[in-house]
Amino acid sequence: MPIDKNLVHLPRQKRSLILISNDDGVYSEGLRVLARRLKQIGRVVIVAPDQERSAASHALTLHRPLRVKKISQDVYAVDGTPTDCINLGINEILKQRPDIIISGINHGGNLGDDIHYSGTVSAALEGGIMGVPSIAISVVARERFRFEAAAEFAVKLVKKLLGDELPCGIILNVNVPNLPASQIKGYKITSQGKRNYGNIIVEKMDPRGKKYYWIGGDEAGFEDIPETDCNAVAEGKISITPLRVNMTDRPSLNSLKRWKLE
User: Fold this and answer.
1) pLDDT of 29-51, one tens digit each?
2) Nearest CA-CA partner of 150 in 183, 174, 119
3) What is the pLDDT of residues 103-117, one digit of tens each?
């Protein structure tokens, strides 16, 4: 067949490389739903804990070796924390730097003070430390999770960030109401709110008469602070909160420099 010299053969467009992790474990439903949707726009590689690691915060495993198990093509389980997963994913498993990192979809919200304990948010923060645009995304519920709306929004957000880079050292913490997409009232750019908890320590007695303790606490609402993540989700909106990797409070620097300690 003769070649039509008038045809212009464009090079195939490079597919984006998306690294996904979480703190609910490699077999979690939220992770599966997110990966399935993101495969529409790029190659998705999952590097996630082999079991639930909720509230792991930014812990790194330094005092024992880590093991990685390949579950299937582009799916890896790590017997460590979410932060371990990002480190191994970028520095060992992937052969090239990912274009973006998504942590989630978390089974439960990461609002207000939760971000300090969240393995989901810490995985994204680790990506931010390594200079990769990173997002943490969570569904705010305790049961009967609806992940489709969050996954759909994640696709929109990833497309946006692949075209417009985040400022260096900034990650996005996204919280999605547990509603059908048709009932979500848009999104809002927010600041970190303040959640309230009661009965932080629960004391129990084991069958041998020894005391033991559960750390957790019951949710007791949140402080009504306008333009915060807690308020936005309560209004039925998706909350997008930019978080800094560098936690220096720059407005305080000058005043602290005037201190004279003796």
Assistant:
1) 999 999 999 999 999 999 999 99
2) 174
3) 999 999 999 999 999
Question: Who's near 67: CB < 8 A, 6+ residues apart?
Answer: 78, 79
* DSSP-assigned states of every residue in 23-81: SS-TT-HHHHHHHHHHTTTEEEEEEEESS--TT-TT----SS---EEEEETTEEEESS-
Strands 134-140 and 100-107, sheet pairing: parallel
Nearest C-alpha neighbor of 238 from the set 167, 162, 170, 156: 156
pTM here is: 0.88
Range of the domain at 171: 16-196+224-247
**The two three-digit tokens of residue 247, written as one number:** 């936690």
Query: With contact defined as beta carbons under 8 Å apart, do 23 and 106 qualify?
Result: yes
Would 252 be classed as within a structural domain? no
For the chain, how many residues are written? 262
Classify residue 253: in a domain, yes or no.
no
Q: Determine if residue 252 is left, alpha or beta; phi over 0 gives left, psi from -120 to 50 gives alpha, anything else beta.
A: alpha
Give the total number of structural domains in the chain: 1
Q: Is the dihedral of CA 153, 145, 197, 209 positive or negative?
A: negative
The CA distance from 118 to 173, in Å, is 11
| C-alpha dihedral, 20 to 25 to 27 to 30, nearest 10° | -60
The residue that leads in pLDDT, 261 or 154, is 154
Nearest alpha-carbon partner for 193 in 236, 235, 223, 172: 223
Q: What is the CATH number of the domain that holds 24?
A: 3.40.1210.10
